[in-house]
């Protein structure tokens, strides 16, 4: 197995090991077909973990809908097509539970992926990521397992989509405005403590989210690359839901912040919830021990304070 990892310096990418690590646009701009195809022709990987994407939190998605659609469409079209043309045996690509329909019967299961419009706050990103699943299915159908001339099975590659819930952990983007809720609030709480100011949280604090620790996503991804034989998508979640206001309590405790917390209801709440059913994952990895939110947040806060000067923010 010769593995190529895209997005190697990202939140999930930094938890994974690979023979070839591609870190960011400056190295290879995956929106550019020539650059992407040359990379695959030169490196000839047998397996690909495709984590590279244009990502961001609620505000970034709302304010850059067109760019999130275009960049992710181009990156995914190029990576899967270059993989196909260079006979890659298996590609594991990443979606996110925000791509599921906004109006859906909860809990979410994999088969509901295309059953209606996604939430408006993730529109561009969600449809681009859905098309990644469509591309994977279309490629599996045309280029996947086929009966060779003499009735021998010939295997021409498998394209799999994994669908994690909100991921958090070390090496995240802690930028105040455009990052996801966990890194944004860790950074804001840190500054409120440093500057002895109030800790401002967006929205009502009522929405519900499921968070999965990046290291757990890394573990599961390695297992999926090695032994997940099904072609249908797989939700990566621990199905443990938390209200944003309770997440805030965990961050305040981990940061030992003693000041006041305010909820700024002029800021968006986004989707109310994205509750998942992870029974398919439980069947694949029975009894997998997920990192608890409390422990994951403590480790991320420790990492952030230690790497404050150099981390993405
Ligand atoms: O993580 P987040 O930006 O994305 O926000 P989504 C989650 C929730 O946290 C929302 C609240 O209800 C926000 O109102 N929140 C409170 C904050 N304070 C803050 C803050 O300071 N910053 C942020 N960012 N949120 C994303 C999708 O949706 O989920 C992405 O837009 C991706 O495409 C990601 O799928 C996993 O969970 O709402």
Characterise the protein shown here.
By secondary structure, the chain is of the alpha/beta class. The model is unreliable at 146-155 (pLDDT under 50). 38% of the residues lie in helices and 16% in strands. The longest helix has 21 residues, at 65-85. The protein starts with a strand and ends in a 7-residue tail after the last helix. The chain binds guanosine-5'-diphosphate-beta-L-fucopyranose.
Main attributes?
38% helix, 313 residues, 3-stranded mixed β-sheet, binds guanosine-5'-diphosphate-beta-L-fucopyranose, 13 strands, alpha/beta, 6-stranded parallel β-sheet
Bound molecules: guanosine-5'-diphosphate-beta-L-fucopyranose
- Principal-axis shape equals globular
Rg calculated over all Cα atoms = 20 Å
How many strands in all? 13
Termini separation comes to 35 Å
Contiguous helical run count: 9
Fraction of helical residues: 25-40%
Strand percent estimate? 15-25%
The poorly predicted ranges are 146-155
What would the average pLDDT be, to the nearest integer? 95
**Order of neighbouring strands in the sheet with most strands:** 2-1-3-4-7-11
* Biggest beta-sheet profile: 6 strands, parallel
Please identify the structural class as seen in this structure: alpha/beta
**Order of SSEs:** EEHEHHEHEEEEHEEHEEHEHH
């Amino acid at each position: 197995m010769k593995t190529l990892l895209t997005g190697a310096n990202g939140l999930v990418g930094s938890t994974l090991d690979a023979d070839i690590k591609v870190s960011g646009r400056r190295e290879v701009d995956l929106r550019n077909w020539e650059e992407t195809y040359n990379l695959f022709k030169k490196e000839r990987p047998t397996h690909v973990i495709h984590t590279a994407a244009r990502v961001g939190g609620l505000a970034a998605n709302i304010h850059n809908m067109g760019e999130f659609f275009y960049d992710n469409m181009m990156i995914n079209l190029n990576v899967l097509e270059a993989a196909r043309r260079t006979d890659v045996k298996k590609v594991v690509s990443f979606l996110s539970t925000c791509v599921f329909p906004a109006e859906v019967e909860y809990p979410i299961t994999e088969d509901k992926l295309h059953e209606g419009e996604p939430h408006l706050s993730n529109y561009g990103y969600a449809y681009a990521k859905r098309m990644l699943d469509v591309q994977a299915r279309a490629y599996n159908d045309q280029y996947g397992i086929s009966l060779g001339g003499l009735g021998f099975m010939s295997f021409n590659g498998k394209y799999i989509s994994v669908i994690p819930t909100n991921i958090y952990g070390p090496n995240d983007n802690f930028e105040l405005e455009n990052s996801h809720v966990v890194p944004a609030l860790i950074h804001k709480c840190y500054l409120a403590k440093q500057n002895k100011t109030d800790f401002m949280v967006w929205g009502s604090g009522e929405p519900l989210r499921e968070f999965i620790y990046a290291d757990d996503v890394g573990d599961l991804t390695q297992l999926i690359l090695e032994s997940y034989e099904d072609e249908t998508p797989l939700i990566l979640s621990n199905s443990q839901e938390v209200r944003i206001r309770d997440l805030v309590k965990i961050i305040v405790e981990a940061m030992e912040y003693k000041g006041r917390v305010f909820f700024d209801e002029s800021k968006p709440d986004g989707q109310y919830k994205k509750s998942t059913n992870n029974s398919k994952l439980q069947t694949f990895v029975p009894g997998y021990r997920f990192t608890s939110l409390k422990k994951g947040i403590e480790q991320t806060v420790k990492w952030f304070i230690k790497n404050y000067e150099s981390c993405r923010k």
